[in-house]
Amino acid sequence: MTVEQNVLQQHSQKHQQTLLNQLREVTGTTDVQLLQQALQASNGDLAEAVAFLTEKNAKVPQQDEATYYQTAQINNDRYISVGSQADTNVIDLTGDDKDDLQRAIALSLEESNRAFRETGITDEEQAISRVLEASIAENKASLKRTHTEVWSDSPNPHDRKRQENCPVGLKNVGNTCWFSAVIQSLFNLLEFQRLVLHYSPPARVQDLPRNQKEHRNLPFMQELRCLFSLLVGSKRKYVDPSRAVEILKDAFKSSESQQQDVSEFTHKLLDWLEDAFQIKAEEDREGEKPKNPMVDLFYGRFLAVGVLEGKKFENTEMFGQYPLQVNGFKDLHECLEAAMIEGEIESLHSAENSAKSGQEHWFTELPPVLTFELSRFEFNQTLGRPEKIHNKLEFPSMLYMDRYMDKNRDITRIKREEIRRLKEHLTVLQQRLERYLSYGSGPKRFPLADVLQYAMEFASSKPVCTSPVEDIETTAPPGATTAQLPPPASTGEQPDASVPPECSGSGPQAQQQQQQQQQRVSIHKPFTQSRVPPDLPMHPAPRHISEEELRVLEGCLHRWRSEVENDTRDLQASISRIHRTIELMYSDKSMMQAPYRLHAVLVHEGQANAGHYWAYIFDPHQQRWMKYNDISVTKSSWEELVRDSFGGYRNASAYCLMYIDDKKPFLIEEEFDKETGQMLSGLDKLPPDLKEYVEADNKLFEREMEEWDALQARKLQQEKLALAAASVAAQPMSTEPCPPDNTAAPQHDPEYMEQQSPTGDSKHLQEDTERAISKAAAEHDEKSPEALLNTAMKVEYTRLLRFAQEDTPPERDYRLLHVIVYFIHNQAPKKIVERTLLMQFADRNLGFDERCKSIMKVARAKLELIKPDEVNMEEYEMWHQDYRKFRDTTVFLLIGLELFLKKSYVDSLMYLIYAYQYNKELLAKGPYRGHDEEMIAHYRRECLLKVNEHAAALFETGEETKVNTGLSIMNELVVACIPLLLVDEMEEKDMVAVEDMRNRWCSYLGQEMEPNLQEKLTDFLPKLLDCSTEIKSFHDHPKLPSYSTLELCERYGRVMTSLTLSRTPADGR
Questions:
Q1: Out of 361, 599, 612, 931, which one is annotated catalytic?
Q2: Per the similarity annotation, which family is this (predicted)?
Q3: Is 825 a catalytic residue?
Q4: Fewer CB near the terminus (10 Å): N or C of the chain?
């Protein structure tokens, strides 16, 4: 067969398969034989084929049970095409209005068929193009947002610089997390990476009269090469895949929007790559059967062995991604076992000609890369929408596929039969054990051994204290005649029939007796309603039992209990042995010859309509798991993978598993230089054209960093000049010589110690200083100014030390009162403290009496005499910068808490966010550098929950203005803040709060709402469900007002007192 004939045949098969898929999707018929029969009867006319099936289905409205097990034909891509929406769009063809329905279907099919003939593009591919175009539109729209952008790149290119040997991330350009997850999983298959990087387009591309598909595939292939080359050698922390997405978008035209399904995209991506490599393979091997590396890498074959109404059949089929049902199974092997067997299989290997039907699948050839699609979405017919299955499903890191291979068919059948028998026996044993562990016939049941133990304890009990009444008698007040108490009777009861008439009569004597009884009863009022019989024991115990009876009974109960315990232990041991036997059934060497190691796990978090994707990929060289979450690439662990991938935890679960043949190391082996034998890395792995491309991009990035550094240097110089000008302007007119330049700058006080006027902070600080000087002078009248300075400094330091040592409540924080208190708390170096004190006494505005002036001059002279090697000025500035940050943190905190108490949650949030971030940076240097982290975290978390509730309430109104306001609040505040809560996953309370917020918005997916609201919600949810802990660009922090020290202390104390009175426990919810 010639190459042209081969191509035509493949195209014809694909076209026929497309017609089958369309017919199956429209009619809902899954019987492949019936579909082919309809196409043959209609000569390929889809409208007539639908009419044929409509008539047939009308006669037989229910599908024959046997047809369910009918095997697929060789060209059926049942196990290749996944993520299809066919099941969710089934049309009922059994209604009365059949003619109108047929006409509508015929028109739809005619339009779809015409589009395929003209462009060579299927509806499935057009659906993908709609998603790609929506992604690009989202990316472009994001550039036009009027609000502060929370998804933009950091303006500092150094924040976007790749760390050495760290993998490169992919930027999410608008609902493209699915693209990133799939591309990163494939890129880290080094054999696939090499195939893409070294792909060269065929020389005769321009002369090929191909359809639109091939005009799309080859440019995309070239763009994928460029993207892979950047992932290999870029100096950027992450790269932008927009050009690859743009090329795919340009191939189709649509305006619909939805988030792409990972499995469907993976299938179509491999299909496009297969087409691109097929063109190259045909050119390279003229006259020979072309070999496609994509097929060799990702596609395998299985044998379908079945019986239909007693007739056996066998068919070989090709598969790519293998779909597995999740619902009802606990691990991957159970899913595989169920997928490999359909129907009654006894007749498959029995001699009798049974009428039962069924089929088995046996792999004849496994691909090097084995991909399983986990079907976690199902369509809810009642609600009319898809739902996600959150069930837990375990899967191993090493999967042995021997039991599913055709060559092991006989031994696997024997083992399956043995497992079936063991499970039947296991069920019987578990039922028997349950009778021992849940004994009884009522609603409450108990372990039988415990029941016998309780019976033994009851039989051995002795009566204690014949009546509680006797205890009361011993403590009754004097004169109480409890012995004459009447029998127990409640108020309003009829007289006992056994009482003699004279006792219950109505004569004067009887009335007098009743009055006396009532008087006596009132003495012991608590016992008048329900009297305890006089002979009732305090504890349950046998009334009458002899020693012989007790001895016999105890012996029987003890023996029975021992027998029950032995039986229980034997049953539990037998059950454990059976479980162990089943687990080890395939552990012999002969069934461990096809090992597949887990390479990548694609995870989805969210609901069926919206969510976020990321990938866990194993690094075989570092022997650890890595988490690829868009631009964020971080080290991970098997434990984290299990938590996020197995399901049952939050709304995250694995959606696609990628295993690789462990016996084919070339899949993940690095490439070596043929001449030197050294391993190739970085740019050395790239062919010349791509190496040049990456080097050019790296130069652009380096230039961007240089320009940034130059800009920052200019800004710093301008700030220094501005500070110098401000300090000169602030100097009072004086005849004193100016100090040298090298000592002038350090003498300026920090902003919280500036002494420019006798008001506010300055006045308060001057009063403290003058008070210390006066106290020192009172002690030593005859001393020189230098001696007075030393004494005054000691007096002031002693005062501040006393503040630092005092145990104060939260509302009185002396660290705000003076920087020295803060330094003492944090054990600042002695030289730093001394210089800070000297700065306080060197204030030019200290006072106008001669004594203060002389001390000020001495202090300034001492400052000038301090040599650079005596005090590290960089360290000195660092300590004062920390104190400035501490005061700023306090201002952020008190304003945030004041607004929180006023229920201005939206305004409060940003202050609390910055208070927490500043405080965290301080606490990283020492435990007393900042405030109570748990307290700030609590109010940050509570404020975020309140803001989320407010935004959700606005969304629920349905009014466009309020809806937009609510979503704007979510995008600009809540979504931007969530990574700050998730960055420390050890804080369980924050994670619970994030899940509560996400669940609140996900709950809207199942509610009826206007289409425009549904569209806004679908567009917003992926951002909310993004699990990336990459901190997005944030707003500039709010401008802080200037507070004096006394005002700051007063307001801080007031708000902390209010919190003490109103604060709920910091439990996060």
A1: 612
A2: Belongs to the peptidase C19 family.
A3: no
A4: N
